């Protein structure tokens, strides 16, 4: 699948959320490793949800690990690593926000969040994303 925000190839990510009580379950999660836009598809290849543009102070979840908490707060980066590239056993996204500028925020995650933010073109912000094409082999319709 090609990212409709920046045009890079998207990567399939792990689906970690449980099936919803209503509606179809998420079968596929596609994430762009360049701009971090994401799209969720159901088992038929139909789009369920997609990321909309959010500024860095509202976009990221705090990363958490099963070990003792550290003094630095990292942003979760979708592929089992933090935005700054650190990987830890059992790393997941927490339900809590990560906000750049907080005294505990990792400075390398702050820099990565700013770079990623600049990769979203103005025309793809404010919910102006095109519908992505289904990935090859899916039964999704291209409209």
Provide the residue-averaged pLDDT.
83
The low-confidence parts are: none
Helix content: 10-25%
Helix/strand-derived category reads alpha+beta
Distance from N terminus to C terminus (CA atoms, Å) equals: 14 Å
Number of E strands: 6
Strand % is 15-25%
Taking strands numbered 1, 2, ... along the chain, how are they ordered across the largest sheet?
1-2-3-4
Task: Provide a brief overview of the structure.
By secondary structure, this protein is α+β, with helices and mostly antiparallel strands. The chain has two helices and six strands; from the N terminus they run ββββαββα.
Provide an overview of this structure:
Helices cover 11% and strands 19% of the residues. It is α+β, with helices and mostly antiparallel strands. The strands form two sheets. The chain has a four-stranded antiparallel sheet with strand order 1-2-3-4, with no helix packed on it. It has a two-stranded antiparallel ribbon with strand order 5-6. The chain contains two helices and six strands; from the N terminus they run ββββαββα. A hairpin with a 5-residue loop joins β3 and β4. It has helices at 56-59, 107-118; strands at 11-13, 28-31, 38-41, 47-50, 60-64, 92-98. The two termini are 14 Å apart. The protein is globular, with a radius of gyration of 16 Å.
Secondary-structure map:
Elements: E1 11-13, E2 28-31, E3 38-41, E4 47-50, H1 56-59, E5 60-64, E6 92-98, H2 107-118
Keywords:
143 residues, alpha+beta, two-stranded antiparallel ribbon, 2 helices
